[in-house]
Amino acid sequence: GEHASTSSSSDDSDDDERVDDGDSRLLSANAVDVLENPSSDQVERYVKARRPVLIRGWAQQWPAYEKWDLEYFQTAPVSDVAVDVDYGADGGGWRKMKLGQYIQVIRDRDWSSSPPYLRLWRYQRDAPFLSKDFSVAACFRDVVPEAKRPPPPHWIFISPAGASTPLHLDPWHFHAWFAQLCGRKRFLLFHPRDIARIANGREFVNPHDPDLSSFPGFADAEPLDVTVHPGEILYMPANWAHDVHALDDTVSLTQNFVDARCWKAIRALYLRFTLGKIARAAEGTTEEEEEEEESNAINDDGG
What we know:
The chain is of the alpha+beta class. The protein contains 8 helices and 16 strands. It has helices at 40-49, 63-67, 70-73, 99-108, 123-126, 195-198, 260-282, 287-298; strands spanning 24-25, 33-36, 53-56, 82-86, 94-98, 118-121, 154-159, 164-168, 175-182, 185-190, 199-200, 203-204, 224-228, 232-236, 241-246, 250-257.
């Protein structure tokens, strides 16, 4: 998904299998394979191989593909939901407003600088009826029972053109699928073997303006460059760092998910977090403090 966690565990992704699928189209050495109307089994080969892939023909069948434009989110009842919008450090940080008000903010001016960004919106809590507008393919479903693992984030992102999320890794070392419903977003994806070239601990290079004195290995990194159009879904494997830039006004949906290999990598980290959560509950930790602890846990490198 498109959110900033900075953990740098590499799992065992260097053991990726080669995907040999006659229905895929390899665009170039630095592009992402494209699957047209694939079966779930075809996509699952990419999940097992830890290889990004762009999927066409799935999201176009969702009600969300027809409905989820800016005008829809400015219409009741969803427009009345209160959301937290990120205006950035230069714009005063986070502000709470109704979703319909935020959509009007997007439409009122050109946000070429410091665009306000509705990121990390937990729609399942605030507008659970939106979940009826899409379906999750079998290859993207969790194989670990929910009671045994951290709940994967399910988020909607809405933004004006120019909004961006800097290079980062997703939390808990989960896989992610990312569906674009309105507008286009450009992704730069970096294989886990490039992590030493693009990160110093929790700090990542800016791939659009790299500081080669701090990240001298960046010149040898080999990002995959993909633009996701409306109706397309991008699968991003665990531990692939990614940088995201909105080319238009956008509406996006993303979910993280767990397979057995992910679970093997994170279960010790999650057990440590769960035991700490029990101890904090006994001490009377507030909900806000607990959310901060969870954020720290998912940004931990496990070491």
